[in-house]
Design brief:
Strand content: over 45%
Structural class: alpha+beta
Number of helices: 5
Distance between the termini: 130 Å
Helix content: 10-25%
Number of strands: 26
Radius of gyration: 36 Å
Largest sheet: 6 strands, mixed
Length: 318
């Protein structure tokens, strides 16, 4: 009878792999003693100083954990997975002699919180660190505007009927002076809308900035959207503030005014509700002989207005 060497070899290899897997699981499931190093991040409301700081040296612990955790710990050494975050009372922080903006605290202060933060992954046997030092710079603050990031379009014959409302429209930012002085505004996360026919309202987050604390992290926006009608009319251009003894001729003497108003107005806008003009001071200061036409809207309800031509020639006669 011929032996099936190929089949026996496959069985042997599979059995060996399974044995190695079982052996590996058993080894990793065991408990191992180790010395662990963690960076410590604290939040502490010290008056006039930044809220968060990371220790200059690690917190060193002696303890035991499973092989699984130990393997994961070593793979994330120096990464965010090895940072422990605490809230601490400002009273435990003491000025560090001879070092500006430095404070220290006894590492033993953290003992009660360690088990919760480590979630039982490490059985802490002792804290080898005596003290932890933190650099906590003085804070600087200023007020900056909030800018809404938006990508919005309205349907045909629809448009914003009012200016966009944003609450708050400004925030106080706090942090190290070098960071705060370089910030002139903050931005929200982008809101989007296409072919809108109705007003929009909502809440969006203000984008965080590393190292900066803000008085508000959210903003509420409202944009009134509605239907409009667009009309045009001819309007004579008035010469204003012409000194006595002078005369100012304008060419052309009338312009085409195009305006938009909200659809369905009970009393639609008429030519008497507008005034096109050129101011003498602007005209006399123009070396090119042309001056921009201004428009007064004498009644509420105008959504936009434009004139054609936007500039007219002026002739000043003494």
């Amino acid at each position: 009878m011929t032996k099936r060497w190929g089949g026996d070899l496959i069985v042997f290899v599979v059995s060996l792999v399974l044995a190695l897997v079982v052996w590996g699981v058993m080894k990793l499931s065991g408990s191992y003693h180790y010395v662990y190093h963690y960076q410590v991040k604290i939040s502490s409301p010290l008056e006039g100083r930044v809220l968060n700081s990371v220790s200059t040296d690690p917190l060193i612990l002696r303890g035991s954990s499973s092989g699984f955790y130990l393997l994961r710990y070593k793979n994330t050494l120096g990464g965010s997975g090895n940072v422990l975050s605490f809230r601490v009372n400002p009273s435990v922080l003491k000025p560090f002699p001879g070092k500006q903006d430095a404070f220290y605290m006894r590492a033993s202060v953290l003992r009660e919180s360690l088990n919760d933060l480590l979630d039982g992954s490490v059985a802490v046997e002792g804290i080898l660190s005596d003290t932890l030092v933190f650099v906590i710079p003085t804070t600087f603050h200023k007020k900056v505007p909030v800018c809404l990031k938006k990508d919005i379009t309205c349907a045909s014959e629809y448009m914003p009927l009012e200016r966009l409302s944003l609450v708050p429209d400004s925030v106080t930012i706090m942090g190290e002076r070098s960071l705060v002085e370089g910030i002139d505004s903050v931005f929200t996360k982008k809101i989007s809308g296409r072919s809108l026919k109705e007003s929009i309202r909502g809440e969006t987050d203000i984008e965080p900035i590393e190292g900066i604390t803000m008085s508000s992290t959210e903003a509420v926006y409202y944009l009134k959207i509605g239907r409009y009608v667009e009309r045009s009319l001819s309007l004579g251009v008035e010469a204003r503030n012409v000194p006595q003894g002078y005369n100012m001729l304008l060419v052309p003497s009338s312009v085409k005014l195009t305006f938009r108003e909200e659809y369905g107005q009970k009393h639609p806008l008429q030519a008497k509700d507008f005034a096109a003009f050129v101011d003498y001071q602007d005209a006399s200061a123009s070396s090119a002989g042309k001056v921009k036409v201004g428009v007064d809207c004498l009644r509420a309800g105008v959504l936009s207005v434009s004139v054609e031509p936007a500039f007219v020639e002026r002739i000043i006669i003494e």
